Amino acid sequence: MRRRLAAPDGETVSILTVSSMALYLGFDVGTQGTKGLVIDDREQAIVARASSSYGLIEGLPAGHAEQHPDTWGKALREVTEQLLQQVDLKGLEGIGVSGQQHGAVVLDAQGTPVRPAKLWCDTSAAEEARELSERVGRAIPAGFTAPKLLWMQRHEPEKWKRADLVLLPHDWVNWKLTGLATAEPGDASGTGWFDPMTRRYCARTMKAIDVRLPGMVAPLVASGSVAGELSLEGCAWLGLPKMCVGTPVSSGGGDNMMSAIGAGATRAGIAVLSLGTSATVFARSDVPVVDPEGLIAPFCDSTGGWLPLLCVMNATGVLEEVRAAFASDLEALTREAAAVEPGCGGLLFVPYLVGERVPNLPLATGTLAGIRPGLLRPATVFRAALEGVALNLASGVERLRALGLRIDSVRAVGGGSRNVLWRSILADCLRADVVPLAEPETAALGAALQALWTCRKATGERVSLDELASVWTTPSGPPTRPDPARVELYAAARARLEAHARA
Description:
Nucleotidyltransferase, domain 5; alpha+beta; 5-stranded mixed sheet; 35% helix
């Protein structure tokens, strides 16, 4: 029997018979929804994909961003049900889980959440982050997990007294699937109580929050190891056939770590640029990369290496502001902006509309500099916005390079990566080829690939994850290469932007 399934572009693809498949399931539990896909290792094809959307808990005070873990569980079951309508999963050989980073899942002794999870985008613990940073002598961002626990201890002491186990979102899913509480270095890097240099927990930081905390966190397992096997209860919770009980569940990781795998940033020189409302740039390193100013996150990856990461707060949101201001649409503005000369006649869009993380300017505002007659036309302002975001990203990428990271090629993912003009501007600003990827769900794909790698290693096979990933991370088109003349022009524009940031 052959089945026909929807591909990302809406076309149908033919799927091979179930008996010929070697299936691996990858989940990505995100902030806006959960994605799932199934890969067939023998045919090297994605044979099923599904998604389920949700939002944040409404009505919370400003700065609070929360979701209940049960929301993720419901979405995982919905995704699994959709996948089962597309492919027979009785022969499932491995499961991998990607999850949004930094979320605080706090359970009582019975395994029940004592409150909804505070998420990466929750800034309610800013004061606790400042206080904790002073206690331990290093910067811990408000979005990390550690300040959230100090906030809970201070504002919800009765709930904190009930706390028995603290997990990250992907750890919680693995725990539900296997019955075992584990953590891994990549995702643990975003807690604030993990030392990426030694790949171990920092007991001093944990005790600065609560002396009980070292006994409340999950033990670490190596990235790419088996976190446990799918239990009977986990199988029923997910809605899989009973014969899936015993399926290996890999260590998994945070969404950035899994996206690095799914985008092919599994060797030196390849970076991933994720363009959404905010934007991240990250690349694999064989050695720790520590920024003395703390602007570049010194994460571990989920393959046994490190994943230094740049995050900027202003990306596609800047374009949306310009679109709304001129009551236009992005496609029309892009077409018109393509006819505007690079550099926009000296118009510089400083894009810090919501403050900025890199550079560290949380209270900054946006600026239009160099305004002259005729430069406030919609196409010119829109191109200036594209350039301004790209220049700010380039400033961060140059910082990564100065810290010793090699970046030759950039794999572009996220909604903004589909803009051909922006890819051209980014190539010139970043001084690197920009490559669009065929598969948009890189985190879910990365989770499935990590499961495949883990299962192969468990059988004694010597295989590199880079070797496996290279087959799956195909481009959707040719690379956009930097133009030497425009590289020089944008280098000067970047210097102007950096001067504005320092002013």
